[in-house]
Amino acid sequence: MTDMLGELRVLLPTAQLLSAFLITVPFTAGFGAIIASEKRVFLATFLFSIASLVLLSGPAVQHRLIRPLINRARFKHLATLQIVLGAATLTFALVLATQLVLSSVLGHTIGNIAAAAVAVLIVMLWWVCPKLWRAGGHC
């Protein structure tokens, strides 16, 4: 449980910060001027970010509501599933946020290239390396 809490202390602030930033975007002066496809990217980014926030905060709320824990193994399995799903939705949110911001600042080509690079980086570090490590390989 201590390891799980430590992991959440890293992931949850990222989801919180990204969600807080995205909540303010529609209220900025220039938001109305963006094209429909950029609004769809924004909407997807926002929904993935909120989903990650809900999934990553779920174990803490559930832990508090079902105390005392009678079946720790079952709870840990549920919490692990939520953390992995939260990390997956956070992956999409971070990639889309990269595309959204850099496309606005540097153009769509650079935004797409940067988003692809961030996607590769996250997939390798968060998803592929742990699988390789677990299989006895190196990352």
Secondary-structure topology with pairs:
Blueprint: H1 2-24, H2 36-65, H3 72-106, H4 108-134
What does this structure look like?
- The protein has 139 residues and is mostly helical.
- It has one domain.
- Helices cover 83% and strands 0% of the residues.
- The chain has 4 helices and no strands.
- α2 runs antiparallel to α3 and α3 packs antiparallel against α4.
Sheet bearing the most strands, described? none
- H/E order of the elements? HHHH
Provide the number of structural domains: 1
Percent strand equals under 5%
What share of the residues lie within helices? over 70%
Number of strands: 0
Label the structural class. mainly alpha
The 3D shape can be described as: flat
Rg is 17 Å
Quick summary of this structure?
This protein is 83% helix and 0% strand. It is mainly α and 139 residues long.
Features:
single chain, 139 residues, mainly alpha
